[in-house]
Design brief:
Elements: E1 2-6, H1 15-28, E2 33-37, H2 43-50, E3 58-61, H3 65-78, E4 81-85, H4 92-100, E5 103-108, H5 112-132, E6 138-142, H6 150-166, H7 179-187, H8 195-209
Parallel strand pairs: 1-4, 1-5, 2-3, 2-4, 5-6
Helix pairs in contact: 3-4, 5-6
Bound molecules: adenosine-5'-triphosphate and magnesium ion.
Length: 218
């Protein structure tokens, strides 16, 4: 069992988008996984109920943070992978999800506040790791990037500084700023063509290379 949380104290950075991409890909692969929407706004739950048309998978919406702990504990015994989408503010549910997590993905877009949210979330993982007496591995995921922009250079410079000062690390795979990613929220389907297809494949490959996701079932 592997529990992966997608978290940031900053809202609107792509947590639910990343959750949709990973969930739909795992469903395509018929992986043994379940998804928890721990965000009271239930964006992921609504998406699954209203739009998602891919291979079936189980999703439970649980906005209550105490029940969330029991749910993660149970599903982590029953499934190979549990994916938890969390709310975009500093909240008990996200912190509880972190205590269970074998890996945490922290998306950021181009804004300075996103970087600050990532830093706070990274430091929270380290703080909780002390209490649970084990490492809580975390990676920043660069989302909605515009790699040729000056903004991207700021992001890379800040990542470098945070890497040096507090060990923060990030995935090599970057998700570009593409309508295809917004479209998933309305269509329920993964992109069928274009650069997003390649980026999603690279993302999942990297998650496997780093041991964040277990190997695909053969
Ligand atoms: N790579 C991307 N390219 C273009 N648009 C994106 C990308 N990632 C996310 N978006 C859009 O950005 C907005 C915020 O994304 P999303 O809802 O996934 O963020 P979130 O972190 O889950 O937000 P919240 O904190 O409110 O839960 C959405 O409109 C989404 O479609
Ligand atoms: Mg969300």
């Amino acid at each position: 069992m592997t529990v992966i949380s997608i978290a940031s104290t900053k809202g609107g950075v792509g947590k639910t988008t990343l959750s949709r991409i990973i969930a739909a890909t795992l469903a395509e692969e018929r992986a043994d996984f379940a998804v928890i929407d721990a965000d009271p706004n239930d964006a992921l739950g609504r998406w699954k109920a209203k739009f998602y048309e891919g291979a079936p998978f189980d999703l439970v919406s649980e906005p209550n943070h105490d029940r969330l702990a029991h749910l993660i504990e149970r599903l982590s015994r029953e499934r190979e992978i549990v994916l938890v989408d969390t709310a975009g503010f500093d909240n008990p549910a996200a912190n509880i999800a972190l205590t269970f997590s074998d890996a945490v993905l922290i998306p950021i877009m181009a804004d300075e506040a996103d970087m600050e949210g990532a830093k706070q979330t990274w430091l929270r993982c380290r703080a909780i790791a002390l209490g649970v007496r084990r490492e809580i591995p975390a990676w920043v995921v660069l989302n909605a990037t515009k790699t040729i922009s000056q903004v991207h250079q700021h992001i890379l410079a800040e990542l470098g500084r945070l890497s040096a000062s507090c060990g923060l690390r990030w995935l090599e795979t970057k998700l570009s700023n593409l309508v295809a990613y917004s479209e998933i929220s309305w269509s329920g389907a993964l992109p069928a063509r274009g650069p997003a297809v390649r980026e999603i494949r690279h993302l999942v490959e990297e998650l496997r290379e780093k041991g964040i996701l277990p190997p695909a079932a053969t």
